[in-house]
Amino acid sequence: MNSIKNIILNPYNLTDQKIEKALSIACSNKIDFADIYFEYTKTESWRLEDGIMKSGSSSIDSGFGIRSVSGDKSGFAYSSQYDLKDLTKAAEMSRSIVNHGQEKSVKLGESKKFKKLYDSTSPLDSINDNEKVDFLKSIDAYIKKKDSKVDQVILNLSGTHESILVMNSDGIKSIDERPLVRFSVVVILKDKERREQGFSGGGGRYMYDEILNNQTGYKFADEALRQANINLNAIDCKAGTATVVLGPGWPGVLLHEAIGHGLEGDFNRKKTSAYTGLLGKKVASSECTVIDDGTIAKRRGSLSVDDEGCETQRTVLIENGILKGYMQDKLNSRLMKTSSTGNGRRESYGCLPMPRMTNTFMLPGKHNPNEIIESVKKGIYAVNFSGGQVDITNGQFVFTASEAYNIRDGKIADPIKDMTLIGNGPEILKKVSMVGNDLKLDEGVGTCGKDGQTVPVGVGQPTLKIDEITVGGTQL
Amino acid sequence: MLPLELKKIKENLLNLSKKISKKYSYQFGIGLAEGITVTSRCGSIESIEHHQDNKLGVQILCENKQGFAGTNDLSNDSIDKTIEKAKNIATNTQPDICNGLPDSNFVTSDNMPKVDIHHPSNLDIKEIIDMTHKCEQHAFDYDKRINNSEGSTFSYGHTNSLILNSKGAYGMIQATNFILSCIVVAEDGKSKERDYEFSTTRDFKKLESPEKIGTQAAHKTISRLGARSIKTRVCPVLFSPEMSVSIFSDFLSSIQGDAIYKRASFLSDQIGKDVFPNFINITEEPHLPDGMGSSPYDGEGVLTRKKNIVEAGELKSYLLDTYSAKKLNSVSTSNKGLITNIIIDSEKEKIPNIISTIEDGIYITEMMGSGVNILTGDYSRGAFGYLIKDGEIKHPVNEITVASNLKNMFKNIIGLGDDIDRRSIINTGSVLIKDITVGGAN
Predict the structure, then answer these.
(1) CA distance B104 to chain A (A)
(2) Do A259 and A428 form a contact (C-beta atoms < 8 A)?
(3) Chain A stretch 40-69, residues whose beta carbon is closer than 8 A to a beta carbon of chain B
(4) Which of A172, A294, A299, A408 has the most beta carbons within 10 angstroms of its beta carbon?
(5) Of B139, B159, B134, which is closest to residue B149 (Cα–Cα)?
(6) Residues B200-247: tens digit of each pLDDT
(7) Residue B47: which of A154, A271, A352 has the nearest Cβ?
(8) Which residue in chain B is spatially nearest to A186 when comparing CA positions?
(9) Mind listing the domains of chain B with CATH numbers?
(10) A3-232 has CATH 3.30.2290.10 classification
(11) Which residues contact B8 (CB under 8 A, 6 or more apart)?
């Protein structure tokens, strides 16, 4: 059984009865529900730079958080101490959100069973530390040998094993053990006086061998080198509006920013989203069907069960352009009289859960990607992005390309420098006129921030064409 | 005075460290934080969060190799395991002659500068809730177009941190932090906008009033209504104090030691060169009373001191820790893991009501996205702001981009406003920069 039980519950003698007592205190009769979340997370990270296996770090984070929910109110307390005294104190602090009432009796059942989307073992122990180190050294040597312009290589290999146990006042107990690994490559090239960089990486909920074997690591190294070489020849970009073709995979950041956040339950319950009240309305061209799916095996954004103990699912957000649904956690779905979609996530035991994305992507359309590029007389083809951001209230979003090209007469032409695209979420998807048949999910490096909490996510999309969007460049 | 809990942990650490063989050197860092965050929304409490965080960080060095390990369990058994883990990691890394603890200038119990950033406050939860209610209500009362809210939040944090190493460094910092903020939504039938205001201080008594925060949040939100895009142009851009903080923080990232020795910054090899116009001075002042960035020592216990970073436009200093200093044949500037208070100053007079001096330009109050490339200086971000004509704000503008290169942006600064924002560790007023490309939708 899971490490929570071996490392926390048993050594501290936290029996079901004691936890039931804490939940009873947290859930007085004026409280709708209460939950307690135990977490034990081990993280490690190895870094090679300047040609040296420079440092490694390892950390353990563990604790519990108790939450009491009454209507739209949440009381919350957490601690990294496990005495019964601490449990009871936290429960009392948590329920102080309402005036004292009678304690409710809570009876915990057996753990719920869920589909298994990943191994429950720890990637940290899946191979020896010296194998991780040797891997990074061999990638470093490979990159330097391949290109004489290499000035700097920065490699990071990290692994996490997160064990969680959620128990709530309905007596439901859910356990999950989540592996996560990530590898990233930054290459800086120097050509005469010019320096440019390329970035690549990937990961997922699996063991290190998926990256160390099968040449996967070398594939990321090649990709970072390729991008850096392209950037060495990039020219300044023209400012103004342009037709933009987005490549498949990681450019799905567009969906994450332009619509994903705006369809999270909390913003819609509070009516602060640009998508508030648009359920059933047309918010995108009929080419667009957008899904959030937490159930894809081994993906970075996937979870067997979310951080509130609800099973994850495949949720249709937009179907043929029509807004179909929001992503929900327990609190917001109760208030909106619907049910959780398994999107209740939290960064750690010290944070309150909220609706968050898992893997968000657009389904493939009918066009061949070449046909999409050929349809553009003058425009931009953007294939890699460094990130994005959105204002969910007015719908304005940006995302920044790290690899992009001019399109001239239907052909990919010169590479252009870092440029930002800005648009309005509810408007931009109506301007998607062609969707490719080449759906691709990203390689598994995405991290999403909201209210100061970060969680791993996935994005994806086929090649698609936006008829008009504003582009930030230095040239007129 | 050392709080009891920290005193106990310090004694435990000293005992445990006696067991560490002399061939290792080490540094321990402890952080204990507690606090409360309360949010009220639309007139009622939305959440009360009680925070309590512990953290131990261990750095172990052996024959120029190093390992780090951390935990939030401060029991003796756990500390022991964490030390062992750091030793293990150190054995798997490669020797680097630049690794090592600081040789000099480190904090001890005798030499610690007094920095006044600790003002514990006994706040009643009812008083806190009341403050957030009032703050939000002032926003709603400001204008009837303020029709929704993401709430008003108050948070109070109290941190104790301790550092000690095998060379005898020992230091302790106690600090408090208070924040009151308010986010509201306005609608006028055509557009819906959201904006916020906040105040943050070390001393509760100096926090801005709920009335000021609520009213200002409402004012900022209302003024965004009716925004439209503009034609693409090259023009002078006035960056609000908050956006100027963002630009100067990109400057500080570009002079961080690790970016410099990796040659990953466009400001590598620029010491002694003119990076800003000659009327600009930038200094670091680590010991300002109540300063949001004030600290007596840095993340490896090196005593902080005042220094000139930019003097009459010329770059004088990078931000170095012991490691990057050795890499660059220099000495630590006490910037391991932190930058203290940064003062942006001008030999020219700071300009009052700087908008009135602009004939034709854009005032930028918000930027979005990650389009800042420290390696090349290339700059391209999404923005929100206001069109300025003949010294006056004409209308809000959205869906625009600002693009340039940081190198040019720094050189093209033509004026600093006197509207200094003291909430950030970077103290600056608004900054006027000429020749920026603003991309628009029509």
Answers:
(1) 23
(2) no
(3) 49-50, 52-63
(4) A294
(5) B139
(6) 999 999 999 999 999 999 999 999 999 999 999 999 999 999 999 999
(7) A352
(8) B264
(9) 125-224 (3.30.2290.10), 233-244+349-439 (no CATH), 248-346 (no CATH)
(10) yes
(11) none
